[in-house]
From TrEMBL:
This protein's UniProt keywords: Exonuclease, Hydrolase, Nuclease
Organism: Zestosphaera tikiterensis
Keyword Ribosomal protein: no
Stated name of the protein: Calcineurin-like phosphoesterase domain-containing protein
Domain Calcineurin-like phosphoesterase: 1-103
Gene Ontology molecular function: exonuclease activity
Amino acid sequence: MLLLHVSDTHLGSSKPFTGSFEREKDFYEVFDEAIDIAIKEHVDAVIHSGDLFDDFRPPPRPYVYAVKALNKLRERNIKFIVVAGQHDMAKRAGASPIHVLKELGLAHSLGESPGDVKNEVVKLNSGDLGVTGIPYFEGSMAKEVLSKVKPPEARKKILIAHILLQELGLPSYHISITQLPVKEYNYVALGDYHINYVYPNIRNPPIVYPGSTEAQDIQEYRDERYVVLVDLSGSEAVLQHIRLERFRRFAKLVIKNVNELQQSLGRLGSHNLVKKPILYVELTSKLSRFEAEKLRTELSRAVERGLISDFRILTKTAEGGELEVGEGRGEGVSTVSLDAVIKETFKDEGITQLVQALVSSTSDKDVELILELLVKDRSLYKKLEELVRRK
Ligand SMILES: [Mn+2]
């Protein structure tokens, strides 16, 4: 029995260039590559450990690409078994995009909302596979979630979960690996952590994060990205990490001034890459407006010459953290913050606050709040209306 483990494909994302279709396509292309590997390797099923989509209400395009790719699997009788991550998680029953794929007969869903743990036996070409699916959940639900984990009755069993393990050593986590009955399973397929990671010193069963298929920003970037081929034919699972080729590379240059950029660009060596890399430029000193403009021009020229696909500029904050001050292609590069740009653009305190809230909003709650604000403050609404009319 052969499986391909894939995770965190975030279809629909275009990070770090929100709204760029070029970048959005990267996520579709590498997903397609993973599906083609599954077909080439004649696997019985593709196991997806969550964040298939980047949004729980995807626009049509990510659906189209997902359906196209998953149809190729269905034609070959390869099952696609998936749990929801926090990105494609239903806020209420039946509302996850995974549910749509399930209704279309393109996915076997093993959990779509927090606490929706499933223990099932799935019929594959080469036999029965017992699967426990744990979709993303908040840490406070751990006890309830763990009580629902019941290894199914089957000769071969896998556990799929979209969780961060305590053992990763990150600031936040869901549970420790010791809380899961891993010994009951032949393979543990994990998602949520975007970096490839194999839990050390455990031969049986392997506990694996393949990592995401694309990096969402430079912090997540690694030179290699993988899908994992899992052979369950023998008594112990045999793994093969397969390197993906069609993901976008990131490069980073740390420079003081424009001269240093010109010297470093030549050394990028991006000519033999399948795709031109995204370049992050980290500035170690503050540039004048003139120098900043020159830097942007140089970088735009590098895009035109096909050295890089796009760029972002980073400067260090006073606290030593990284601050992004500009991105490529038309976005103005300066040493001012996004907040300052919004202020400068709208020149009205009320509107500025509104736009800032919208820009930084991450939930429907914020939108509700903003609407409430508009209803209460008619003058703000009037000003906004005028602005829209002028555009
Ligand atoms: Mn993810």
